[in-house]
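Running co-folding for tetradecanoyl-COA.
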Amino acid sequence: MTIIQHQMSGNHCFGCSPDNPHGHHIESRWDGQVATCTFQPQTWHCAGSPNFVYGGLIASVIDCHSICTAIAEAYQREGRAIGTGDGILYVTGHLDIRYLAAAPIAGPLVLAARVTEAGARKSLVSCDLHVGETLCAQAEVVAVKVPASWGDA
Ligand SMILES: CCCCCCCCCCCCCC(=O)SCCNC(=O)CCNC(=O)[C@H](O)C(C)(C)COP(=O)(O)OP(=O)(O)OC[C@H]1O[C@@H](n2cnc3c(N)ncnc32)[C@H](O)[C@@H]1OP(=O)(O)O
């Protein structure tokens, strides 16, 4: 299965760049419809209780995984392999997360994201996060398409 982040160059993202030494290094596996990601929380990723995962960490992995899903789907819609030709880039416009159950720190966090609506300027992405059988978080993300030069200074 394609690992989205392995197909993209020039990615410095804290959440998902393979090359950011301080980042989370998430990997999103794309099957053409759904992108999945498994993330193993560390003990220091805990919330007030050492037993559960910090919500900001959950938001971070959902954010990154969902935006990468939007990017993968957009390449697919254009009939191109991810990372080929002119760069396609989306950024987070809106992130709406419901924290449904505390996520045990033992993890792993298992994410599944799909594009539910795709337009010319934005895509809507739905992302579920499970630990074991428990749905711990559910998110709706608005991914807004920007020029590949968006991040230039
Ligand atoms: C360079 C190489 C990179 C390599 C790959 C790296 C991958 C890394 C992956 C990174 C992963 C990490 C990800 C990160 O961390 S990305 C970093 C966090 N995000 C940001 O910094 C974004 C900051 N905001 C902006 O730049 C602008 O406000 C954006 C670009 C978002 C909109 O700008 P602008 O306002 O000019 O756009 P538009 O008016 O033409 O609207 C276009 C459409 O979008 C809809 N809309 C807009 N805003 C919102 C909103 N807030 N909620 C809902 N919808 C919104 C709007 O209604 C319209 O829809 P429609 O009316 O057409 O239906």
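Result summary
The mean pLDDT is 97.
The chain is about 15% helix and 35% strand.
Job closed.
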